[in-house]
From TrEMBL:
Transmembrane segments: none
The protein's required cofactors: pyridoxal 5'-phosphate
GO biological process terms held by the UniProt record: D-serine catabolic process; isoleucine biosynthetic process
Signal peptide (from-to): none
Keywords, comma-separated and alphabetical: Lyase, Pyridoxal phosphate
Location of the Tryptophan synthase beta chain-like PALP domain: 95-394
Gene3D superfamilies the record matches: 3.40.50.1100
Natural source organism: Bacillus nakamurai
Pfam families: PALP
Gene this protein is translated from: dsdA
Name the record gives this protein: Probable D-serine dehydratase
Length: 449
């Protein structure tokens, strides 16, 4: 922080007071502009390159991970209608929540069961391609299924990859890294679930556990990796490649929307709600969707009440210069994938002119939505992934949300509410049942109020 005075005046802001008390808030972003994305041509080119790279790797992915064969080696998830969930939430809050509700099912992504299967896997693939091409072993017009050959795994085993993670990024990078032959080390924060660490160790990945939170695990991982010239560090707080891997989702989503005959425009606004941790995942998706749909897409990030790092960074304008601990929050949440105290220095500034807003959800809200989505739609998400689900209700029910819709003169009857589900299919079933039981008890309690 710039100093005591700035800290004092920030703490006096009503919104920051609410955040510091860990209350749920809905904030619309006054810095959003309707101008085109800055450097859009450059970004478009880089995203197109990422799409092409994923296409080159598709034959390898299809043979290395048979579950992707049917999708021709594309790591992609369905887009599903969630009308029953919409009805259930309308009943619960006693008012209409109009529009068409969809769930982007990244909890079902192959290989690692979370949105990290986009960015994390992409960055490892790019690194593998870079070093294999440089060594003269691979050409871009080769059939990449040759990467399965022993000579490639032997080659990659001379290199290592390291990453700091709350769980899912490590899981994604470990799965693909180990498959290619790399030596992988994952630096896990204290939030990481035991089953994720066990699974990685089974795959031959080194897992180093920290008692501290995500920022510390990243910092230590970065420090150790710097000492080894053969080690490549995947930097979740700054990586452009990670962000581009996530951004490749945009064009694919556009095709899925077209198949449903949805064409976002002035009369058919598209609202997208994304769970946000450090911001790279939702930031990459948001960037791509803004490039495609411009002002016809309205993007909101959801965060836990104990870890609203992106909201705090955007509101204060300090981005990665402030952490939730600076306002007295503990960064403790059951939403382990979102337990991040300081936002990405890349994603924060990039989102500043693009994002419609951010909101927070209490763990009890996340659990209760987890239970309700299972009961109504039979979809099982991990707690973090429900941060998106809280969005549409908050848009309709908060003062700030109502003002946003009014100011933008939107025809909400035709609105499309797309909730991005970011993880869950690999959670062991006993653990999922336990989440659901907790969710049921919260849902019951809230119903009685
Ligand atoms: C990592 C993660 C996110 C958010 O991605 P960031 O890049 O950290 O913002 C959301 N949901 C789940 C389940 C995650 O694991």
């Amino acid at each position: 922080m710039a100093g005591r005075d700035m800290h004092t005046s920030l703490m006096e802001e009503p919104l920051v007071k609410q955040l510091a008390l860990a209350h749920e808030v809905f904030w619309t972003n006054p810095h959003k502009t309707n101008e085109a994305v800055k450097n859009s041509a450059e970004w478009e080119e880089e995203i197109a390159e990422a799409e092409e790279r994923l296409l080159r790797f598709a034959p390898y992915i299809a043979s290395a991970f048979p579950e992707t064969k049917e999708a021709d080696g594309f790591i992609e998830s369905p887009l599903a209608a969630i009308n029953d969930m919409q009805k259930l939430l309308e009943q619960d809050c006693g008012e209409a929540l109009p529009g068409r509700w969809l769930l982007k099912c990244d909890h079902d992504l192959p290989i690692s069961g979370s949105i990290k299967a986009r960015g994390g896997i992409y960055e490892v693939l790019k690194h593998a391609e870079d070093i294999a091409v440089k060594a003269g072993m691979l050409k871009q017009d080769d059939d990449y299924s040759i990467l399965h050959d022993e000579r490639f795994t032997a080659f990659f085993s001379r290199y290592s990859i390291a990453v700091g993670s709350t769980g899912n990024l490590g899981l994604s990078i470990g799965m693909i890294g180990a498959k290619l032959g790399f030596r992988v080390t994952v630096h896990m924060s204290s939030d990481a679930k035991q089953w994720k660490k066990d699974l990685l160790r089974q795959k031959g990945v080194s897992v180093i556990e920290y008692k501290a939170d995500y920022s510390q695990a990243v910092k230590e991982g970065r420090r150790q990796a710097e000492q080894d010239p053969y080690c490549y560090f995947i930097d979740d707080e700054h990586s452009r490649d990670l962000l581009l891997g996530y951004a490749a989702a945009g064009g694919r989503l556009k095709k899925q929307l077209e198949q449903m005959n949805i064409k976002p425009g002035a009369d058919e606004p598209l609202f997208v709600y994304l769970p946000c941790g450090v911001g790279g995942g939702p930031g990459g998706v948001a960037l791509a969707l803004k490039l495609i749909y411009g002002e016809n897409v309205h993007i909101f990030f959801g965060e836990p009440t104990h870890s609203p790092c992106m909201l705090l960074g955007l509101f204060s304008g300090l981005h990665d210069g402030i952490s939730v601990q600076d306002i007295g929050l503990d960064n403790q949440t059951a939403a382990d994938g979102l337990a991040v105290g300081r936002p990405s220095g890349l994603a924060g500034p990039l989102m500043e002119p693009l994002l419609s807003g951010c909101y927070t959800a209490d763990d009890s809200t996340l659990f209760s939505l987890l239970y309700k989505l299972r009961a109504s739609e039979h979809k099982s998400l991990e707690p973090s992934a429900l941060a998106g689900m809280a969005g549409p209700v908050k848009l309709y029910q908060t003062k700030a949300g109502k003002r946003y819709m009014k100011e933008h003169g939107l025809n909400m009857k035709n609105a499309v509410h797309l909730v991005w589900s970011t993880g869950g299919s690999m959670v062991p079933s006993e653990e999922m049942e336990e989440y659901s039981r907790i969710g049921f008890s919260f849902a019951k309690k809230m119903g009685r109020q």
